[in-house]
Amino acid sequence: MTEFWLISAPGEKTCQQTWDQMMVATTRNNNLSTNNKFNIPDLKVGTLDVLVGLSDDLAKLDSFIEGVVKKVSQYMADVLEDSRDKVQENLLANGVDLVTYITRFQWDMAKYPIKQSLKNISDIISKQVSQIDNDLKARASAYNNLKGNLQNLERKNAGSLLTRSLADIVKKEDFVIDSEYLITMLVVVPKTSYADWQKTYETLSEMVVPRSTNLLFEDHDSGLFSVTLFRKAIDDFRHKARENKYTVRDFQYNEQEMNADKEEMTRLSTDKKKQFGPLVRWLKVNFSEAFIAWIHIKALRVFVESVLRYGLPVNFQAMLLQPNKKNMKKLREVLNDLYKHLDSSAAAVIDVSNYM
Fold first, then answer.
1. Which of 248, 171, 163 is nearest to 208 (CA)?
2. Which of 6, 193, 254, 309 pairs as cysteine with 350 (C-beta 3.0–4.6 A)?
3. Do 59 and 124 belong together in one domain?
4. With contact defined as beta carbons under 8 Å apart, do 157 and 165 qualify?
């Protein structure tokens, strides 16, 4: 995580002089931070009432957009699943990494024309990010449903023989099919009881067909055995099997249903692969859009707060500081000392972090 502090201080005789003072205080001999000018264009100031109203609105909008940026980045990590190490390379702003974008920030005149009022620019950004948020909810819901249905089917084909689907284990030849009198049943037998099963299965109830059992499949703990008996003995056989700690699985061989399950899994798996690429591209594009919008809101906040605190004509320098982690406390002390002649709330610190 890379943390930045976005501050503004009133211009001295010139804004360059303000910048030079801050650079001397934070970098000469002490290397407290790496600093960049944060370029904010000449925006329309408007009336004092509008600025005061915008101050509150922008703080809320800042928080909302940060939430959307986090949601998009977190969902990117969820979608990439086993390739989470590739998340960072997909989280770019305007095609560059986030640190580069912030430290070289330039206002996007095409997206957010500065001839518009501050309120209009704020509304444009708000609508844009709200649309991203709504689209994310819809896309995530559709993809999560697809993924969830596929995982449910995959879970059915995994796990213990006591619970998993048997459709991919058994074959048609394992069963007596379409007999009026006979039925093949499937029994889960613990591995430690194989010998007992072979000795006793024929006498668990009446009407069990001798030498009809076959081991069809094994997992770590148990084996799946088939056994054929007369239909009228089913209930008695189940009861006796349970008494002997064998589990009779409810299963009827139905080729049509089994094929339908396999086709459904193939369809869901294919649909997931089809949606994956476009979804990652959408997340990549809209993370960039949301992050860019967020930094523009930061710029608007700095502008509005600076005009409210330092007055007119507009004369302030916005500066982006990347603190040296070991010296954060010292950096705050130096900044407080440098700007102690200002109102105590004048040097606003806004953190831009979490995504680098």
1. 248
2. 6
3. yes
4. yes
CA distance linking residue 133 with residue 283, whole number of Å = 11
Question: Domain check: are 9 and 133 in the same one?
Answer: yes
Check residue 355 and give its pLDDT. Answer: 52
- Give the three-state DSSP class for 169: coil
- Cα 144 to Cα 81, 86, 137, 282: the distances in Å are 13, 20, 10, 15
Give the pairing of strands 350-352 and 4-10: antiparallel
Q: What angle do CA 155, 239, 177 make, to 5 degrees?
A: 65
Q: Please tell me the distance from the alpha carbon of residue 47 to that of residue 319, in angstroms, as a whole number.
A: 25
Encoded tokens for 295 = 């930094």
Q: Are residues 60 and 92 in the same domain?
A: yes
| pLDDT of res. 139 | 97
Six-digit token string for 114: 């500065």
d(CA 186, CA 34): 71
Alpha carbon distance 108, 116 (integer Å): 13
Q: What is the DSSP string of 274-341?
A: HHHHHHHHHHHHHHHHHHHHHHHHHHHHHHHHHHHHH-SS--EEEEEEEE-GGGHHHHHHHHHHHTTT
Most confident stretch, 192-201, 310-319, 337-346? 192-201
The angle at the Cα of 209, spanning 208 to 214, to the nearest 5 degrees, equals 105
Kindly compute the dihedral angle of the four CA atoms of residues 286, 289, 294, 297, in this order, to the nearest 10 degrees. Answer: -140
DSSP 191: G
CA distance 220 to 100: 53
- Residue 240 maps to which CATH number? 3.30.70.100
How many structural domains does the chain have? Answer: 2
Q: Does 105 share its domain with 190? A: no
Backbone angles phi, psi at 166, to 5 degrees: -105, 0
Question: pLDDT tens across 58-111, in order?
Answer: 999 999 999 999 999 999 999 998 777 788 899 999 999 999 999 999 999 999
Q: Considering the chain, what percentage of its residues have pLDDT values greater than 90?
A: 77
Tokens of 329: 């406390």
pTM, 2 dp: 0.81
Q: Is residue 111 part of a domain?
A: yes
Domain that holds residue 58: 5-148+293-354
